[in-house]
Amino acid sequence: MQRSSFQSPVTSRAPTPVASRYKQPRFAYQDSLEVPVSRSQSRARPGRTVDVSFGAPNRQGSPKSHVPTSDNTKVPAPGPSQARPEKDGMRDERGEETSDHARVWQIYTDEAQKADALMTDGWSRSIDVLLVFTGLFSAVLTTFIIQSYQLMLPDPADTTNALLAQLISLQFNNTTPTSAASAPQSTLGQIRWVNGLWFCALACSLSTALISMLAKQWLQAYLPNISGPPRQRARRRQARFMHLEAWHVPTIINALPLLLHVALLLFFAGLVVMLWSIDLPVTLATWVIFTFAYISYFASIFLPLLYPECPYQHPITDQLRMWFSPDPSAAPSYPRRRTSSEEAAKIVYDARACVPTSEDVVDATALAWLFNKSTDNEVAAAALQAIAGLPRDFSALRTLRDAGALPLIEQGFQSCFHKDTTVDLQWHLVDPESAELYCRAWMTLTRGTAEQWPFDIVEPLWVLQDLNTHPDAAAIASCAIALSSFDSHMSQWELLMYLARGSAGEVQLSQATQCCILDSISACFVKWEMPVAVIEDTATRAVPVLLRMLHLTEDLTNSKVRSAAALALYIVTCGEAVDLGVYMSEEKRRGEYCELMIEALSAIVEAPGRFGVQDALLDVVGLELARLASPIVAQSERFPQRLRTVARSSLSKLYADGRIAQGIVPDNILADVLHMLFPPAYLSITHQSVFVTTLVETLETSSHPGITNWAVRLLEVLLSRCSLAVSQAFVESNGINAVVRAARAGAVDSRRLQIDSLRTMCAFIASATNEYKAASTLHAALDSQFDVLLQSDFFDTLCSVVASRRWWLFEVSGHWLPAIVELSRIRPGAQVWRNVLKTFKEFADRNVGEDGYSETLAHLEVIRKVSANEEMTSPMLSAEVVGRTSSEDFSSKESQDG
């Protein structure tokens, strides 16, 4: 893929000063591998405003040519650099550009098969040539070695000739004979050098043959048959290719000719040494030929380094070029752009040190291989556009940035537009789908960095932002502008406008687009540099929109949109330091979804007006917060005490206001809410009255055992030592009959419900009698409460419960009878006391001698005396005195009274 003359200069990303009235970012975005976030000029269009009701944006001062009204606008045809990886209608779903069956992996597999076949076939043919030449050279060299090796061995003929020479000299009177002239002979040292050089040459030649045969086996093992989804096939091929390079297999294969060339050099050197002392002219001629051959040899290696178009290509040249290049993965035609901080933090990947291989690194290197190595523009464009579908927590983005993906994406985005330089000098959109993909890829690749959209191509981005016929593309363009305009609140408001229109059904936005908008809002609030008043105003507008998003996705519990909205709501409402790098993982977001939502929703409940939340949205808050009660109850150890307290306080307020009730939330959730509220949080007298009334309404309308049990237990706590207002609310809401009905239901369903119901009634009686004794001015109101109590079925139910089951005697004497005794003092003439005395006396006789027996008799004695109008020496007989009264005495007095 050839780059056009366009290249975004580094100066377009330089930060500019910001006025001192801007505050520091409220949140933290920590990434130790990224350059720090810097302030810069806004990329938002000057004069662009957004309606406060989040309607369509008002484009002031924008030429009409910037706003195409349909996809059929007449525009110039795509140029040669226009990339169209797929036909319309055959593209991947948004956000699925790198899924298991995405088209980019099928493209990668096809391209890899072609490249691997070409690579292995070239290597195989080269190795075959080497093997043929090695065989011929070794045969010739062996012939020379056989002859030269004989010169190193002692010759028997030489010994015989020496002895004959001595014998002849003795025969001629011991005179030394004149030796005959002989040809020049090589010295022993020269012979050793010649043999040494030729034996080394033979070793190099045979080693070349051995390694060549091994390399053939490596190449055969490199191309196995692979099955599975396209993504898995692509990962396996890329992993094999990375290991092939990490173990320097290409270097070894490229070095095989060099080893053979060394063997040839050693052979020539040995030949020159052997001829040096024999025939100088022959030696010089051989030396000249040898020198010329190797000058040509080295020239064929180094000339292509200086002149890339030189036809004298050599395998060693490619290896030297890789060694001399600062980045082996960078293609010469793709200019790189890297800061000093990025250079220092460059990732060095060694496949031998990664077992198993990281999937993210494999995917990143596969895409980098595709857009850097492929000569097909469409293939390279498909790889660049597929970056848009990488998951949010993709950990190998730096690998793609180091491979030069960012300038290529910017160039690809520019190629989706045509700039008319003849008339109006305006940009016209050619390919909106590809422009959207490039824009998303740019945002994915620059996530967590200080990169901002280049000023050179900001006008095409504005054109894409105004595309009414493609709301997803326009929304993505707005996200890119907002992420590059932290000093412009209008760009953030426009993102809220898209979410509001999507929630209202005015536009249809894909799930991937909604997640992108929500993540952009979170990033903007984290990095925003605006006055506090603007931030608060934006929060007031953002919270209702986010709540509507949560309400629309309430049935999609595993939706990415829901988790993204929860994080954005937490950031907007709580305003605490947030490390967005921690929440890049979808698993992390879902794992902390409950904690984030509890914090955010509780903040809204505390101050709904601050966030622009009114009645309808408060119902949504109540429903969402009620759903969180179940995990808190089931996994209470997971949530800290502070968080449980916050949730209990907010749920109490919402429940008292009637926003969490039967019919609004499911029964099982309501039961968990009531369980969560026990014991109830601190409430004022007014809130206690409302809370009691709501509990009674729930008790009357629900038959769910969990709801009934926890409602009765909550009433017991609220009615214990309560004020007159609370007890009056309990009576006026028909609480007495509701609790008595629960006690009767407990006779069939639950013994525990019976106990709790009777305790609740006794707690009410104790509170009312205490108020009666403490304040004489309130007797009229309390009398009406006692009338309702005595006219109800409470005492009949109490007597039937005591008579029908065996209860713990201390429960009766310690919790039930004390309150009843005080009521008997206030209403001694009530008709219920005779039945009460008889029932409890029979119950006491069945539990003679058990713990609480004497206390029970004491309480019954007081009731008997009060109901018989006998004078009491004290308000209540002491337990010690009554304890000495035998059961027979108590029976005789009862019979006399009868």
UniProtKB/TrEMBL annotation:
**Biased composition, class Basic and acidic residues, residue ranges:** 84-101
Q: Where is the composition biased (Polar residues)?
A: 1-14, 59-73
Q: Which Pfam families match?
A: DUF6535
Key words, A-Z: Membrane, Transmembrane, Transmembrane helix
Signal peptide interval: none
The record's annotation in InterPro entries points to: ARM-like, ARM-type_fold, DUF6535
DUF6535 domain residues are 105-277
Where does the chain cross the membrane? 129-149, 258-278, 284-307
Q: Which domain of life is it from?
A: Eukaryota
Region (Disordered), start-end ranges: 1-101
Its protein name is DUF6535 domain-containing protein
